[in-house]
Amino acid sequence: MIIGCAKEIKTHEYRVGLTPSDVKNYVSRGHKVFIEKDAGMGAGFEDNEYIKAGAEIQGDKKKLFDDCEMIIKVKEPQPSELELFHEGQILYTYLHLAADENQTKKLLEKKVKAVAYETIEVDGKLPCLIPMSEIAGRLSIQEGAKYLEKPFGGRGVLLGGVPGVQRGKIAIIGAGIVGTNAAKMAVGLGADVTILDINGERLAYLDDIFGPRLATLYSTENNIEAALRESDLVIGAVLIPGAKAPHLVRRDQLKLMKKGAVIVDVAVDQGGCVETTKPTTHDNPVYEIDGVVHYCVANMPGAVALTSTLALTSTTLKFGLMIAEKGLESAARESRAIRTGINTWEGKLTYKAVAESFGIDYTPIEDILK
């Protein structure tokens, strides 16, 4: 298969879809790999490293798309990139379509076979989403701590406190991968931490792991409102795989929060779990509504590009090789993981949660593969 790795053009996105080591894996199996010029620079990989691994460097993005059967990226294609796809081409990247109707319709119009990292499922887990969720969860506390500082519009609270002074309070809504990793960082800082979720078993597990260093609460509207009143920092960490995130914090509830409190909504890629969430960039990461600072960067792991790229590609490589070796149709027939990753197929929407988000006809991938 002829594979192209495109340079990311989203604002301050420094990750890259293939490392030189990944290129070696593809080339050693007889595949041809094109890397867009300087695609890996942001993550610390130079073009000559890719050349040594067996790739060819392509300076023209349009030609890269024209010549390649599969395009590998990190983030969803930007509007200028969407125009470059051709019918039947495979796209392998993060998509988060449930929060992006325009992208969804464009991929359908272009008849792209789009495989989303975030919906590939193995034994009930999302292996290609987990490493970025771990990173985003940890970063959420790091960024929240910074924007609590007075020069950034925050309350001027040190999360860990000092002797004789109350520690900062953190509420984490969602106890999945993001929430658990946020909790690890928050507890490590010495903050007063509460985590909320509707999964009692998950809360019991975290209670066993963290003990008295972490308070667990069942996620009800009353408990969320109590957490909003008390907290200096609120982390939105709710994920429904492939679907739009539910708004668990409404606009009118912001008035319950302290002036200068901070919300970090990690669920922004899926529309956010706070009603007032809107995507921001590393250029301009925060905005204020009703006295509450919102941090809603849609590609948080891009800030730590080297760590993120290595973590991401260690999970995406396996499935990418499977697609390249067998072709997407055969790979999907053999692998349920690949089937769950397919969101669009030559003009048909094959992921139910996305179809429901936009009222678009849904076609099960199994029906196509018959």
Question: Overview of this structure, please?
Answer:
Helix content is 36%, strand content 16%. It is built from 14 helices and 15 strands. Helix 6 (130-147) packs across helix 7 (177-189) and helix 10 crosses helix 11 (328-334).
Keywords:
single chain, 370 residues, alpha/beta, Rossmann fold, 2 domains, 8-stranded mixed sheet, 7-stranded mixed sheet, 14 helices, 15 strands, 16% strand, globular
SSE blueprint and pairings:
Blueprint: E1 2-5, H1 20-28, E2 32-36, H2 47-53, E3 56-58, H3 61-67, E4 70-72, H4 79-82, E5 90-93, H5 101-109, E6 113-116, H6 130-147, E7 169-173, H7 177-189, E8 192-197, H8 200-210, E9 214-218, H9 221-230, E10 233-236, E11 262-265, E12 286-289, E13 292-295, H10 305-326, H11 328-334, H12 336-341, E14 342-345, E15 348-349, H13 352-358, H14 365-369
Parallel strand pairs: 1-2, 1-4, 2-3, 4-5, 5-6, 7-8, 7-10, 8-9, 10-11, 11-13
Antiparallel strand pairs: 6-14, 12-13, 14-15
Low-confidence stretches: none
> Which word captures the global form?
globular
Mean pLDDT: 96
Strand content: 15-25%
CA distance, first residue to last residue: 23 Å
Please state the structural category.
alpha/beta
CATH class of the largest domain: Alpha Beta
Q: Rg to the nearest angstrom? A: 21 Å
Element string (H = helix, E = strand): EHEHEHEHEHEHEHEHEHEEEEHHHEEHH
Task: Just name the CATH architecture of the largest domain.
Answer: 3-Layer(aba) Sandwich
Fill in the CATH topology of the largest domain: Rossmann fold
Largest sheet: 8 strands, mixed
**Strands of the largest sheet, in order across it?**
3-2-1-4-5-6-14-15
